[in-house]
Amino acid sequence: MNNSSVLVAITGATQPQGKFEVASGKSVRVEIPETFAAEHITLATKDSEILGEMLKSYPREFGQIMNAVTAGKFAEAKEIGKNIGLTEDNFVRQGGGMMAIICLALACAFLLAHD
């Protein structure tokens, strides 16, 4: 059994709280498969095709999603995403499953950040 997971967090700007500065945000923990197999690569490939088409079709909405997320307006971002089909269910219906591309994107982020 693999116990590897990745924790991704985003926080907003700090706000004064008495004598401290405090920021709130959201985090997501992604369980990494013990073996990233060919089926995961196939899913990630399909995910990238779906996401690429969505980015072409909804550039304004993706900008709104990113702006909402960075402002800490997660419910707003989720609603916009839902309205354009940026959901796991939608990706699965089309033969993908967003988690595969998310795992690969996280791995790439680590590769860029470390020697």
Structural summary, described in words:
- This protein has 115 residues and is of the alpha+beta class.
- It has a domain at 34-113.
- Helices cover 56% and strands 17% of the residues.
- It has 5 helices and 4 strands, in the order ββββααααα.
- It has helices spanning 38-57, 59-70, 74-84, 88-93, 99-113, and strands at residues 5-11, 15-17, 20-22, 25-31.
- The strands form 2 sheets. Strands 1-4 form a two-stranded antiparallel ribbon. Strands 2-3 form a two-stranded antiparallel sheet.
- A hairpin with a 2-residue loop joins strand 2 and strand 3.
- Helix 1 crosses helix 5 (99-113) and helix 2 (59-70) packs antiparallel against helix 3.
- The longest helix is centred in the middle third of the chain and has 20 residues, at 38-57.
- It is globular, with a radius of gyration of 16 Å.
- The two termini are 28 Å apart.
